[in-house]
Amino acid sequence: MIRAKKRGWDDILLDVFIYTFLIALIIVTLYPFLNTLAISFNEGRDSIKGGIYLWPREFTTFNYESLLTDQQIFHAAGVSIARTVLTTVFGTFLTAMLAYVISRKDFVLRKFITFIYVLTMYVQGGLIPTYFLYQRLGLTNNFWVYVLPGLVAAFNLIIVRTYINGLPESLIESAKIDGASEFTIFLKIIMPLSKPVLATIAIFTAVYHWSAWWDVFLYNSSNPALATLQYELMKVLATANSMSGSMQQALANSAQSAQITPRAIRATMTIIVTVPIAVVYPFLQRYFVHGLTLGGVKE
Amino acid sequence: MKKGLSILFLMLVLSLAFTAAAGAQDDLKEFDVFISVSLPDYSGSSIVGDIIQKETGVKLNREYLVGDLEQKVGLMIASQDYPDMLVAAHFTDKFVEAGALIPLNDLIEKHAPNIKKYYAKHLDALKKEDGNIYYLPQLAIPFEPAERRYPSVGFFINKRVLEANDYPFIKSFDQYFKLIEDYQKEHPEYNGQKTIGYTTLFDGWRRFATTNGPMHLMGYPNEGGFVPVKEGEEYVVRPYYGSNVEKYYYKKLNEMYNKGVVDQEAFVSNFDQYLEKISSGRVLGTLNQYWQVQQAQEVLINERPDSIMVPFPVTYDPIVEEHMRDKPYVQTTQGMGITTACEDPVAAIKYLDYLVSIETQHLIQWGIKGKHYQVDEDGMFYRTEEQLAKFRDPNWVRDVFGRHYFYNAFPSLTGLGPNGNSFMPSRQPSAIYANSSAAEKEVMDAYGVKSFTGLYNKPFEDRKYFPLWTITLPTNSKAQIESTRMTNALVQHVPTLVMDSTEKFEANWDAYTEQISGLMDAQIKEYQKQIDWRMENW
Amino acid sequence: MKSSGNTFWQKLWKQKALVLMSLPFIIYVIIFKYIPLWGWLMAFQNYWPGNSFFEQTWVGLENFRLLLSDPVFFDVLRNTLAMSVIKLLSGMFFSILLALVLNEVRFAKFKKITQTISYLPHFISWVVGANLVMNALSTNGIVNDLLLNLGIVDSPIMFMGIPKLFWWIVGASHVWKTVGFGAILYLASIVSISPSLYEAAVIDGASRLQRIRYITLPALKPVIIILLIINVGRLMNMGFQQIYLLSNGRVIEYSRIFRIFELDFGLKMMRYSFATAAGIFRSLVSIVLVFSANQIAKMMGEERLI
């Protein structure tokens, strides 16, 4: 650890700024979350009245029960875990591999590959053609539609490549002299050195896949066994919405009041989806927050 | 690392297992159904469902809507990946256009005596231009329509205002605002919060609550963006946007806004905030359809019964004869159809026919006799307090009883049955008043009515086409684009009309009318064409 | 020509290991990202999904004409670019600031917890987030309470009703939601800086600010530039959910953006062709922007995207 020997006024001032900034940040980012937590434990109809801040007014676990009792939700959580783990592990590895290839300044196809990947961030074929493609590939009504299309994302690729570009070239050179193959260099030298950035894109990928539901809706909605957690939760939310929405217009006078309200459901969903991430997060976090203990390499 | 790999392997095996289809029970006939309403998946068993499955030998695999319907519809049509039956709200006609649905005429004639009988009144309206019927709407009215406790739309006013003025009958908009303004002056606070004289909902698509104002002030029920005016025997489609009544309406709101009567934040609030304000009891008035106020009203009934909201058919001039209640109608522009993918359409129509028999409808809506409802000596259905209590729990009704899974979006019956029992228990004539809360009864008694609809005139008798809003404008038509531009113009101009200073009102009004003037011709033409068609063919 | 061709193939052969490693990726991207681009042809049709591709009516550039001639088109373009730029710059600025600040925190626990809390808003959907923002900014919300109590104003301000403020509310709420998640990228780069650099700086008597300025920031430069270039290309693609949910009729002239316009006149009416034309327009603008930015970076001798 580096510690200045004597603390000058500018040093103290800097600390004042740093901690004021961080405490203000904690307040504005933590409060909304605690508020959401309070609403998730508050009786739904009572929440309509507003005025709930950090603590529920009419405590209930009903919102969680109505979202979590269903057997299917646990199955869906399994699907979500499967897709998240598969995509994160394979996606990160493959992205790193291609990033290494296109970081090699002497590689003849470097520009071409970078170009065709970068372009995908800005051009999209649209809903219907994509659906046709997946249909032809047999990916509709299929678990693998969650994994395959998103394995290598251009954004992550460029981020990793930029990072690898910053690694000392001498490492690769010396490995080559030792007769290491390209794949070995990637596996034995680049991968370990890129842990911080790989942890970063792993988090990006995992968070995305953990909360994904749109592709379930588009490609797998007719097979309940392929529903993801977020999709199941969206289902409950859609139900709550339509109970107070236009779909039920004709039935409005007959519908009894819904005890689960859209607002309570949304709050509860937020918590259900966030908590598992928050539990797993520290394992990845250590790669980019623990800091210098890992030993930096950039010079 | 090894542990990671083994977990990974486990995941792989698991995920492969998911792709394997669940085994089907072979003795049941199965149909896949896509339903454009949102519900949790059916558990496969319920009180109602078990009886129906036993009697029909049919099992339905339902897919309910989770995301955007328009995208789902586009993909289904493009890929021609259809279930056996489907209902797609106002996009159902798109499936007809795409040739995805089979004509039902012969099937109904040969295999569906109940549909033929109970849908008889609606069959003409269900015929497309080729003379074929492609889908069956929900909530057919085979006999007489039933009363409701609340009218579908109203200028709501807080019970406290009514009480303070000895329950006056409110007819005009001026009178309505006078009552509110005076009461607000005397009672600037309620429960420690500032009283809000009048609020209005302008959030997203729900904003029609505000922009429909002039139509209702003219005494019309909700027709949509235009009103068909009776001229001789003809119904002529006329705009109310840009009309004198609309000018009067916004001018009044503008005046009241500047006096502090209209909620200063109405136009920057969302639906949640709107409900929050009303359920606090401090709002004195609002114009809306009841189902948009219902959640807040229920809070009021339970917690602040002195402040429940009471609907009135207010018009711009007491001379106007109002017909603000909806004429009972069946939404014949959407319903459940059988697709070309269905291998046994006869079995499918027989199943739907089974659903709309009077016995099945009683089972789905009332339950099992003696267990879920009683019958008195006149043959009238009623529920004991104990039975009622069960049906007050919406989750029980949905998951254990199972009503929603055979009712919502399925062909069904409503109104009064042949012996005077309402198909819908909440509209049983004897129940409307009897099951009202004390506060509701107090108001009804004060006006000598048995339901709040009693405060209204009878709806229009004729008007076969009703309502205009069920007409969909053709895709890619000029009318369709005009309509979206019109909406955008309203979103932009209405808040300014109300919120600017009163001196600027005339200039703002001119700017608004100038912008919308060119956005109505194609719409009017299209609506007129379809109204004429309906009048001739329905 | 010929000789350069030869060297190209020779080089390719020499690098066959790298070629082999990248070939599956080339095939992959072509299948998943480029084959569906045939759908762009829809922009020149009146596409109706009930017909097969060859039965569609061709309308030439009609959809583009409709798009570019719409009376609100320039309003929409202005709002989109303005808000995107505000979001891009403020988002990056605060994420970098947070990363730098966290790096200066000496207590590991505090650092970890703060970092974890700061990314929580990422998981709060905009539907929930917009509600929180609107409640905080309403006339009886916490912001007005604060201003009133501090005596800065004497009557509450209706923040959501001030058209000119809308862009900044969007910018600020964007920062709130993304600052922590965005900082992760920069933290990863800071972590890899060799401690020896800092040690040398201390020996040279550099202050903490100087160390940030001369060591940390330069180490972040490549990733900052790359993200700038990538996101400049995304200016037109700004998500609509946040703006849609925060917007209201009072501020519509400042809140109408391209994606909402595209949705209203496209998919919501099942006008696939119009939606495709709008998508192509966005893509073209993106490509022009991203390559310009890349070129500028190249001229300045900085890290490049391609």
Automatic annotation (TrEMBL), chain A:
<keyword id="KW-1133">Transmembrane helix</keyword>
<feature type="transmembrane region" description="Helical">
    <location>
        <begin position="185"/>
        <end position="210"/>
    </location>
</feature>
<dbReference type="Pfam" id="PF00528">
    <property type="entry name" value="BPD_transp_1"/>
</dbReference>
<feature type="transmembrane region" description="Helical">
    <location>
        <begin position="112"/>
        <end position="132"/>
    </location>
</feature>
<dbReference type="GO" id="GO:0005886">
    <property type="term" value="C:plasma membrane"/>
</dbReference>
<keyword id="KW-0812">Transmembrane</keyword>
<keyword id="KW-0472">Membrane</keyword>
<feature type="domain" description="ABC transmembrane type-1">
    <location>
        <begin position="77"/>
        <end position="281"/>
    </location>
</feature>
<protein>
    <submittedName>
        <fullName>Putative aldouronate transport system permease protein</fullName>
    </submittedName>
</protein>
<keyword id="KW-1003">Cell membrane</keyword>
<comment type="similarity">
    <text>Belongs to the binding-protein-dependent transport system permease family.</text>
</comment>
<feature type="transmembrane region" description="Helical">
    <location>
        <begin position="73"/>
        <end position="100"/>
    </location>
</feature>
<dbReference type="GO" id="GO:0055085">
    <property type="term" value="P:transmembrane transport"/>
</dbReference>
<feature type="transmembrane region" description="Helical">
    <location>
        <begin position="264"/>
        <end position="284"/>
    </location>
</feature>
<feature type="transmembrane region" description="Helical">
    <location>
        <begin position="144"/>
        <end position="164"/>
    </location>
</feature>
TrEMBL record, chain B:
<dbReference type="InterPro" id="IPR050490">
    <property type="entry name" value="Bact_solute-bd_prot1"/>
</dbReference>
<dbReference type="InterPro" id="IPR006059">
    <property type="entry name" value="SBP"/>
</dbReference>
<feature type="signal peptide">
    <location>
        <begin position="1"/>
        <end position="24"/>
    </location>
</feature>
<dbReference type="Pfam" id="PF13416">
    <property type="entry name" value="SBP_bac_8"/>
</dbReference>
<keyword id="KW-0732">Signal</keyword>
<protein>
    <submittedName>
        <fullName>Putative aldouronate transport system substrate-binding protein</fullName>
    </submittedName>
</protein>
Automatic annotation (TrEMBL), chain C:
<feature type="domain" description="ABC transmembrane type-1">
    <location>
        <begin position="77"/>
        <end position="293"/>
    </location>
</feature>
<comment type="similarity">
    <text>Belongs to the binding-protein-dependent transport system permease family.</text>
</comment>
<keyword id="KW-0813">Transport</keyword>
<feature type="transmembrane region" description="Helical">
    <location>
        <begin position="272"/>
        <end position="291"/>
    </location>
</feature>
<dbReference type="GO" id="GO:0005886">
    <property type="term" value="C:plasma membrane"/>
</dbReference>
<keyword id="KW-0812">Transmembrane</keyword>
<feature type="transmembrane region" description="Helical">
    <location>
        <begin position="165"/>
        <end position="193"/>
    </location>
</feature>
<protein>
    <submittedName>
        <fullName>Carbohydrate ABC transporter membrane protein 1 (CUT1 family)</fullName>
    </submittedName>
</protein>
<feature type="transmembrane region" description="Helical">
    <location>
        <begin position="81"/>
        <end position="102"/>
    </location>
</feature>
<dbReference type="InterPro" id="IPR050809">
    <property type="entry name" value="UgpAE/MalFG_permease"/>
</dbReference>
<keyword id="KW-1003">Cell membrane</keyword>
<dbReference type="Pfam" id="PF00528">
    <property type="entry name" value="BPD_transp_1"/>
</dbReference>
<feature type="transmembrane region" description="Helical">
    <location>
        <begin position="214"/>
        <end position="236"/>
    </location>
</feature>
<keyword id="KW-0472">Membrane</keyword>
<dbReference type="InterPro" id="IPR000515">
    <property type="entry name" value="MetI-like"/>
</dbReference>
